[in-house]
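Bug #77: duplicate submission created two jobs. Keeping one. Sequence:
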Amino acid sequence: MTNTSQSRLHLVWRVIIVMAAASLVWIANGLLFSVEEYSRLWHFLSAGFVLLLVVPIVVIARRYLDRRLWEGLRLTSLAKGWKALIVGALCYLLPAFAGLLIFILMGWIQVSIQMAAGDWLIAVLTVTALVFIYEALPEELLFRGYLYRNLNSVLPHWQAVIGQAFLFLLFAWIIGAAPSWNRIVFFFGFGIVVGIIRVVTDNVWSAIGFHLAFQTMQQFFSNRGGYEISSSNSALMEMVILGAIPFTFAILTLNILVRKQPDWKAVNPE
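Kept job's structure:
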């Protein structure tokens, strides 16, 4: 067990070291696995590369930089965290599907699926696994797990949420994922919404669930992997139905599903 009485690096240095290490992982991943045409095998290799490097980074940082116990990150075992995972996913899926249904019924958009039921199920499982390995688990472990926990040791919940959202945006900018103002707004807003969900549920699995649901839906309707699911207006689908609507109503959905509120001014030192 880690001796929690031992001194440790200043918070600023811990954040800088972990941010730099994580950024290098994604930059290296982009250099090693960049291909002109989409390959599912290459996608799995890329996802595995990220996961197998990010998890050890957080484990090592938690033990040797933080000198604190893993449990403090609030990434519990799945046996304890599955309810939080579902809550997080529903915070995205319920408003997203409600919006999609309304737009279809009103005739504002049409969706077509040219896949057999069995193929569709395999595609769902495949995309979900890829998103979990490549994006949802490593990114949420880093930002809503490690970095949020460190910030909350000196800052109240609300400031820590803003702080980790800013770090998430900075990370996206460093690796080239936020080249424009609309992407900058998106990453910061995403960090705020997922950060609030993580605080209210007190479990990183809820953040993973929201991230998993969002990214899976986006990848299906972008048709990047040739899943033969298309809409009559891809911009409306991506930006409004799968973007603005679920992000706007995610916290309202959370308050319906989880009837408790944390003390947003509380600081949780370790």
